Each structure stands twice: as C-alpha cells, then as structure tokens.
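User: Could you walk me through two proteins back to back? I'd like the raw sequence and the structure tokens for each, with a short line separating them so I can tell where one ends and the next begins.

Assistant: Of course. Protein one, sequence then structure:
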Amino acid sequence: MGTRRGLSRDAIRSAAERLFTERGYAGTSVRDIAAAAAVDPALVIRHFSGKEPLFLATMHLDVGLEAVLDGAIDSLGPRLIAYLLDADERTRGVFLALLRASDTDDVGVRLREVHDAGFVEPLRRRLTGPDRELRASLAGALVGGLLYGLWVVGDERLLATDHADLARHYGRVLQDLITPA
C-alpha cells in the first residue's frame, strides 16, 4: 500500500510539474493533473490539499550558480549572463510558471524566496564593500530584466542576438555592479 501511495504521489508530482511548466498555473486544473497522472482528482487533493500547495511543491528553480560564482570575480558578469542564457527548457518553464502565478497567494512569496536564495544571496556572498546587499539586489533585478525581455516579452532583437554578444554587452553592465570602480 505504501509503495502504491508513493507511486501515485510521484505520478501526480511529475504530471503537475510538466503541466504547470507547459500551461502555467491558471491554465492547469486539478482534473488535468489527475488525468495526466492517471489518478482520480480526489487523490490529488488527498496527497497535496489542492492546486496551490501542489504548485508550490513542484515549482522549484535551482539554476546551479555555484560553479559560475566560484570563478574569478573580475569576469563574473559576462560568465553569469552566458550561463543563464544557456538555461534549459525546464528552468525557463519553471521561471515563467512562477512569474505568471506570482499574484496567487503564496506563489509570490515563493518567487521572492527563489530569487533571493537562488541568485541574490549567493552573489552577495561573493561581493565586497558596504553596499554589497544593495548591489546584489540590483544585480538580481538586472538579470531578471534580461530574462523578462527574452522569455516573457519575447523581444525579437534580443532573441535574434547571438548569446555571446548578449553575454558580452549585458555582462559588462552586470560587472559594474559586481566590481564597481
């Protein structure tokens, strides 16, 4: 029984993650998730208490910045932008799902937690100076702006630009926050 319960829970999580990243929070219903997991909708509620708790349980964004942040600080801006531009479809899907559902009760809180814990705080630890908290937050906002331009707005000029050129130009701006003159 415990194994069967675990299998249905795993199937629900897997289906929810896929559907939330493909369709977003608003475009995914508990019935859709249940159908994709081949379970009764009541089982989704029993395991996760509802759509929002299931969304929060499945939408995790770990961009793995540690490897990039460990490199030389004087070239971190362009390296960081290049790394983020190469994000996989899952990362992009989770980012967009969180962003689009950010006005839903606890989802906005989760998005802020992901932003702070996954980007701002690791970067802040690498920075020096009395204003490092502010510069880390500004860097997070700057990077978020690029991802917004690419993934939300779909800015055609940005999308058509070679990733190396974007990393060089945008990375230079980011570098000014990381190592100010």
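----
Protein two, same layout:
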Amino acid sequence: MPDTPVIELRGLEKSFGAVQVLHDVAFSAYAGEVTALVGDNGAGKSTLVKCIGGTHPIDAGEFLFDGQPVQVHSPRDAAALGIEIVYQDLALCDNLDVVQNMFLGREKHSGLVLDEYAMEELAGKTLAGLSVRTLESVRQQVSSLSGGQRQTVAIAKAVLWNSKVVILDEPTAALGVAQTQQVLELVRRLADKGLAVVLISHNMNDVFAVSDRIAALYLGRMAAQVRTCEVTHAQVVELITAGRSGGPGVDGAVK
C-alpha cells in the first residue's frame, strides 16, 4: 500500500459569493487504488473535482501532488501534473472517429501534415493496453458506438497522455448491466496499472465492486474517508445522508 498520496488536499475551502460550498475538506487519492467519491446531490462532489481539475480556484487550503505543494490555476495546470477528468457528458464528437477523438486538440504532426499513422498506432496500443476488445476498429465513427464503448473511448483518451490521476464522473450512470460491468472492469484495470483513480458514483454496488477507499462528502464537509473493506453498505449510506456513522471502522465522521 502506498504511503504518499498522489493527490492530497488539506483544509480546502471554496465559496461562490456568500455561499460556502466546501468547508475544511481533506481528501487523498493513492496510486494503484480506486477512491470512490460519494455524497448526495449538493454535497460538493462536482465543486471538489473542479477544484482538483483547475476549473475553480481554491480559496484556502493546501494542494499536494506526489507529496509536494502545487498551484493549480487552470485545467492546463492540472493536465501538466497528469490529472485527467472524464466528465459525464464525455466531451466526444460524434462526427469524428475514435482516433480523431482521442487526439482532439493534441494531434501529432509530421512536418505540416497530421501523422495519422502514429496517432492510429498509439490509439490502438492504448486501447490494447487497457484490454479493450469491444471496438471493431479505431476508425469507427463515435456516432456508431454504444454508451459503454463511448465511455471506454473517453477513458482511453484520458490515459493516453501519461496521466497519473484519472477522475471519472458517474461513468456507469446511463449504462445497462453488461456495459456497466465492462466499464467497471476497465476502472479496476486503470488502478492495477498504477494510476490513482477517483470514481464519482451514486451506485453503491459499483462503489463496493471496484473501490479500495471511499470518501463521503456531506454538505460540503468530508464526513469520512475509509477503506472499503472496513465499512458496510449501510454505514456508507449513513455517512452520505447524515454525515456520520456509528459503526466501527469509520473515523473522522462529522458530528
């Protein structure tokens, strides 16, 4: 088990005008592990992720990456560190194929022309490295893909750039049972390859199926961050809905 988190937040504060959304939040994510970020609607999950990703500047607190203090003022800063976020809308272009989507905005060139061969080869290697076998071709139009295949392409796009942290926003929300299983297996493989994976989910079955740790937000505060094997389904639900749990193994609950 790694000792130093890849991402560690201490005392994070974030307000929008007079409304304080995050209060003294502590959060960590470790290499080789899946950390599930859970909480009810309005708990602050999206704001926390956007602070990590540089979309929202933090008002106060420390942001450490690989144990070193960093300043993240923009998504470009986050990407430079190796933080990639796959939002729920996936940000894929239906009129482009898989390769074009994976390299959108980061195209490879040979002289003045696009290096289509290099991009196609790297896209194929990335998908193969993640054991993705559900795509017929990397030249398929994204408009022809299923929901699970689209999610796979978006995740592969995120790990293409030597990322260290991949944050997934509700990756199984709109998927059927079989596609959900495929995506969860991919999430687990990302962690097994050494990445720190943050999984935002409302689905407790998904959370317990793939996560190593669970971080529960309640009304903008971190109710607890615990190892998944040390808590029950009911305890996590209580953390989400009440900000506390009376059971053993749950430390740091909000009183």
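Residues 93 and 101 are 7 Å apart (CA to CA).

Let me know if you want the two compared in more detail.
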